[in-house]
Amino acid sequence: MAMTGLCLLTACSQQQSEQVQQAASAAIGAAHNSLQASSAPLAALRQQASNVTAEAKQHAATLLTENPALGNAVAILKQASDKADGKQQWQALEHKVGKYPADIGLYQTGVVAEALRQLLGSKFAVFQQNMQVSGPLSRDQLLYVSGNKPHEGGSEMAYLLLDPASRQLEVGLIEQGKLTVYRSGPALYRPAEITAMLSNIDGQP
């Protein structure tokens, strides 16, 4: 009698387990179908948005091509916007005094980085190497930074002078103990710290 009851209990347990598994599978299937149903409209909306954007760009390009005067006006507005943005970036440097160039991306992006690349050309890489160990952005009438290549202070160094008012810069590169100066305009004031740094450098102008 006890064995019969145990068998019945086991059979019931197996049946309940199968029912639970079936219910779980059904729930998972329903959730999957629901997710697919909701994803389809989302994908369609994304495709529509992409198509509209492409059409708008093509339409704008056609307008500019067919209307040279409009194209010139857009170019002038863009130049004015870029100029205003550049001026703001130069002015913003004043608020970064005390911060290290690496922390503010001074040589990576922005108007200073662009001006340095244009001024130094292939020597920009040397400038970056010679500024690996540097002090923070400092002020003495204008803004400046000085630095040196790791373990080679005295022979491989550099300095950078920045004048936000005139948006001019000056770079001094010391390679193998010899100084070469690069300027974007007239000579700039040299802070006392930079003058002291250059006091024993050959080729100082």
Descriptive tags:
205 residues, alpha+beta, disordered N terminus, 6 strands, 57% helix
Query: What would you call the structural class?
Result: alpha+beta
Number of strands: 6
Q: Give the biggest beta sheet.
A: 6 strands, antiparallel
Mean pLDDT score: 80
Kindly, what is the distance between the CA atoms of the first and last residues, rounded to a whole number of angstroms? 113 Å
Low-confidence runs (pLDDT<50, min 5 residues)?
2-13
Output the helix-strand order. Answer: HHHHHEEEEEEH
Q: Estimate percent helicity.
A: 55-70%
β-strand percent reads 15-25%
Backbone CA Rg: 34 Å
Q: How would you describe the shape? A: elongated
User: How many H/I helical runs?
Assistant: 6
Structure overview:
It is a single chain. The protein is α+β, with helices and mostly antiparallel strands and 205 residues long. The protein has a domain at 99-203. The protein has six helices and six strands, in the order H-H-H-H-H-E-E-E-E-E-E-H. It has helices spanning 2-66, 68-92, 101-104, 111-120, 124-129, 192-198; strands at residues 133-134, 138-140, 142-148, 157-163, 168-175, 178-183. Strands 1, 2, 3, 4, 5 and 6 form a six-stranded antiparallel beta sheet that branches. The chain starts with a helix and ends in a 7-residue tail after the last helix. 16% of the residues are buried. Mean pLDDT is 80; it is low at 2-13.
